[in-house]
Specification:
Bound molecules: adenosine-5'-triphosphate, magnesium ion
CATH architecture: 3-Layer(aba) Sandwich
Strand order of the largest sheet: 3-2-4-5-1-6-7-8-9
Shape: globular
Distance between the termini: 76 Å
């Protein structure tokens, strides 16, 4: 006799397009605090490289879209995604989407190829929907070599994990680079990490915002700029390192009110 089937028949997954919330709408929903929102806006304008990190359905794409909206209108933006979800309203947006292989198993165009190709299109910014493989290497290199201000997301549960995950993903490319060299690339490329979390009640929240202070071969080190405190239900903004202040000021931006510069030690 056949064992009873444990399956309960066909299952349909419907993947909805995320709503294109702007940062002000995210603010109104309590996803983050006003100081961090203002800080992130200035970071995008000052061309800092930002990684949005979070678990499944934590709101990464939504945040990436909201942040990308602050890229100035005159810049050429190239978006690269598996499924085109981003909706940017700037004038010069080139949208690229991956293509799966045909029935013969050929003709696939993966994210990696699109990132490489995008570099030949003289982009001012590259926005990659999600780094989940070897394309992380191309993204890190782009961030390090003249495409500062690029943005992407990674699937990780903490900001620290996001850095190690990027390093691991970059090692999955077909280019053989020593793992330690990848560590340096991550340190040099990533400036700010926005960590999202989906609470058990379904709320999406920025639980931390960190600045990467480690450089070259130093162990990854983060400077906490903002933390969500579950006990009080509030966002606690800290001080910013002097180097971050200087970087913003070099581009005519500055730290937002409410985020003081750290007293020098
Ligand atoms: N801050 C927010 N407040 C309320 N709802 C949100 C927020 N951010 C995202 N959402 C909703 O949560 C769902 C998932 O969002 P989104 O696709 O941005 O997450 P994701 O982390 O990119 O997911 P995936 O892991 O599938 O790529 C969407 O329906 C979106 O509209
Ligand atoms: Mg997504």
């Amino acid at each position: 006799m056949l064992p009873p089937l444990a399956l309960n028949g066909p299952v349909v997954t419907i993947r909805l397009f995320p709503k294109a919330y702007g940062l002000s709408e995210l603010l109104a929903r309590g996803t983050l605090d006003a100081t961090t929102a203002e800080f992130l806006r200035r970071c995008v304008q000052a061309r800092l490289n930002i990684i949005v990190s979070g678990g499944t359905a934590s709101g990464k794409t939504t945040m990436l879209n909201a942040l990308s909206a602050f890229i100035p209108d005159h810049e050429r933006i190239i978006t690269i995604e598996d499924a085109a979800e981003l909706s940017l309203e700037q004038e010069h947006v080139i949208r690229l989407e991956t293509r799966p292989a045909n029935v013969e198993g050929t003709g696939a165009v993966p994210i990696r190829e699109l990132v490489r190709n995008s570099l030949r299109m003289r982009p001012d910014r590259i926005v990659v929907g999600e780094c989940r493989g070897g394309e992380a290497l191309d993204m890190l290199q782009a961030m390090n070599t003249g495409h500062e201000g690029s943005l992407t997301t990674v699937h990780a549960n903490t900001a620290g994990d996001a850095l190690t995950r990027l390093q691991t993903l970059a090692s999955m490319s077909d280019v053989e680079i020593p793992f330690q060299a990848l560590h340096e690339q991550v340190n040099q490329a990533v400036d700010v990490i926005v960590q999202l979390q989906r609470g058990s009640d379904g709320t999406r929240r920025v639980v931390s915002c960190d600045y990467v202070v480690s450089a070259y071969d130093q162990p990854f080190r983060l400077h906490s700029l903002m933390r969500w405190q579950p006990a009080t239900g509030g966002f606690v903004v800290g001080s910013a390192p002097e180097r971050l202040r200087n970087r913003l000021e070099a581009t005519g931006e500055h730290l937002p009110d409410g985020m003081p510069v750290e007293a020098s030690r």
